[in-house]
Design goal:
5-stranded antiparallel β-sheet, 2 domains, 23% strand, 5 helices, Immunoglobulin-like, alpha+beta
Length: 306
């Protein structure tokens, strides 16, 4: 579009210049018309002063005004020169107007092109910003998913109710396994044991107050005993169907991404499931399983993790 406007402007300038250059030039004539024109031109060339009723053209003015014969002729010639100058100024003004018009058209078209370029640039920038935001979001999702896949996960599993060596006391055990892919660090374990009748119970656990310098590697297992002990008879002499031993507590740890995690657990053992093959009247020279780990059930409450 700017090329078309420039071409139109140049054509207008050329036409104007041709118009100015052709003023006062008589067209060529052929045959009789050419001879008559030549005779008329010769007659005009001998005109030396203005006459009343005389048709004066551009050539006549130039001939008479080349050497005016008196003051009146000189005044008329001066007026003619002023008129010619005004006529030339008109065409110059017209040419200037055309130039200004062309400049305005070109400026408008350049401004429109600049506006379109700015819009295109803004659209490109918006697309780049959107793409960058999408990339950041995708990277954040990837980072989150990678962390979820690789982080440490500690799973407290039932370890049974066991009799202590040379004692009539029993202890509940929990095996804590790291089933994740990164080491679990600063592992704190709280294990409790209690007997209750029925299943409608709520068991409280501690807050994360004491951080220990303990690590569980991926795939490794540690065993933790309960803080409380129960007499062996508390189990063997209460074999009713609604009597249970609960081993419960919570594990706190760092997941490998400097984030503190927890796993809460509650294992329910029926006292009726104690090991009847063992002679409990004989002193225990070694640790003996009172209720095996496979008798445990995950209680309907008290099991949670993040």
């Amino acid at each position: 579009m700017p090329n078309i406007a420039i071409r139109g402007l140049l054509v207008g300038i050329v036409v104007t210049c041709l118009t100015l250059s052709n003023q006062g030039i008589e067209p060529k004539r052929y045959g009789g018309d050419a001879q008559a024109a030549e005779n008329k031109q010769n007659e005009k060339s001998h005109v030396t002063h203005f006459k009343s009723g005389m048709a004066v053209d551009h050539h006549t003015y130039r001939t008479i005004c080349h050497n005016p014969k008196d003051k009146d002729h000189a005044d008329l010639c001066q007026q003619w020169r002023v008129a010619e100058a005004a006529d030339g100024q008109y065409w110059l003004n017209l040419l200037g107007l055309l130039l200004i018009g062309g400049t305005l058209v070109f400026t408008a078209m350049a401004a429109r092109a600049a506006r379109d370029a700015a819009r295109h640039t803004k659209a490109t920038a918006d697309a780049a910003i959107s793409s960058a935001a999408s990339d950041r979001e995708a990277n954040e999702i990837l980072r989150t998913n990678t962390a979820l896949e690789l982080r440490a996960y500690l799973s407290p599993e039932p370890g049974g109710i066991n009799q202590l060596i040379k004692s009539d006391q029993t202890m509940g055990h929990v095996s804590i396994r790291n089933v994740g892919r990164l080491p679990a660090r600063r592992v704190s374990v709280f294990v409790h044991m209690a007997t209750f009748r029925g299943r409608q119970i709520v068991l409280a656990v501690e807050n994360d107050v004491g951080i220990v310098d303990r690590v569980i590697q991926p795939g490794a297992v540690i065993t933790q005993g309960s803080d409380q002990l129960l007499p062996l008879t508390e189990i063997t002499q209460h074999t009713q169907g609604d009597h249970y031993v609960y081993v419960y507590g919570i594990v706190y740890y760092d997941d490998g991404y400097d984030k503190r995690r927890f796993t809460r657990f509650c294992h329910r053992y029926p006292t009726a499931g104690y090991n009847r093959r063992t002679d409990w009247n004989r002193d225990a020279s070694e640790s003996r399983s009172v209720i095996d780990a496979d008798k445990a059930r995950y209680h309907t409450a008290g099991n949670d993790a993040d």
